[in-house]
Amino acid sequence: MNTEPSQDTTPPAQHWRSYGPLDLHAILMRAMEAFNEHGYHGTSVRDIAGRVGVTVPALYYHYENKQALLATLLETSIKDVLDRCRAAAGEAGDDPLARFCGMVESIVLYMAHRRQLAFLDTEIRSLEPENRARYVALRDYLQHMLLDTVEAGRAQGVFTTPIPADAVRSVLVMCQGVANWFREDGPLTAEEVAARHVLLSLGTVGHPGTVGGDSPLPFAGGSSLARGGAARVSAPRTSR
Questions:
Q1: Which residues neighbour 118 within 8 Å (Cβ) at sequence distance 6 or greater?
Q2: Contacts of 167 (CB under 8 A, 6+ apart)
Q3: Alpha helices of 93-119 — where are they, by DSSP H?
Q4: Could you give the count of Cα atoms lying within 13 Å of 85 in the half-sphere of its Cβ?
Q5: How far apart are CA 193 and CA 229, in angstroms?
Q6: pLDDT tens for residues 100-111?
Q7: How large is the angle between the packed helices 129-155 and 164-176, nearest 10 degrees?
Q8: Could you give the dihedral angle defined by the CA atoms of residues 205, 207, 210 and 211, in that order, rounded to the nearest 10 degrees?
Q9: Per-residue model confidence as pLDDT tens digits over 50-93
Q10: 84, 106 in Cβ contact below 8 A?
Q11: Distances (CA, A) of 6 to 2, 93, 201
Q12: What are phi and psi of 204, to 5 degrees?
């Protein structure tokens, strides 16, 4: 796997907030479903081939083995997150507060809209050492993007956390957790969940505006959350 985010001039979506149907090869789609249902080790190549409606040799013609399927799915997922995150940051410009809000929003929207694909991050333990190292490098790239923004915000007095690296790790864990519990038929939309997580993330990195709630925040839904509007929305279910 390439350890850099996609450099394609044509991003996977027209806009980082836009999500259409998931476009995966049929073999990858069925593998994703099987891994989510039974786990990587509980899924056989024969099971995946049966779901696709092809023979095992025909599956091997496209993908070398089950490990290649998992590695490809995880690479596809993390590169999409990175592309959208970079697009959100670019749209926000040089303002670290706007950049941070945009990046967190983009990550949470991905976790909600691509929940089945994002949930496969839990299978990182099943990657072979070389594949795992490359995937971790991509995740680290995302973490450093956020950390650089938080450090820039600290320099300007926008963020006050004394432990920026720990704060960023906490933000990412919280955002990635959305893939575990979000439901399209739940009480909150993906956009409402993203707005809440931006607010929570701003508190984690020590943005003063999240404490007083007396100033609009630069993200979708930020003004209503700052006024306490989110309190009128039912809490999300957390059961899987």
A1: 77, 81, 110, 111, 176, 179
A2: 150, 161, 204, 205, 206
A3: 96-113, 115-118
A4: 26
A5: 13
A6: 999 999 999 999
A7: 120
A8: 100
A9: 999 999 999 999 999 999 999 999 999 999 999 999 999 999 99
A10: yes
A11: 9, 20, 26
A12: -65, -35
User: Which structure tokens are listed for 229?
Assistant: 């509007």
User: Does the predicted TM-score (pTM) go above 0.90?
Assistant: no
Structure token pair of residue 60: 């091997």
- 129 contact partners, CB below 8 Å, separation of at least 6: none
Among 170, 161, 19, CA closest to 84? 19
Grouping H, G, I as helix, E, B as strand and the rest as coil, residue 221 is coil
Of 67, 172, 75, which Cα lies nearest the Cα of 117?
Answer: 75
Distance CA(17)–CA(110), nearest Å, equals 9
Residue 228's φ and ψ, nearest 5 degrees, are 90, 10
CA dist 168 and 180 (Å) reads: 19
In angstroms, rounded to a whole number, what is the distance separating the alpha carbons of residues 101 and 85? Answer: 10
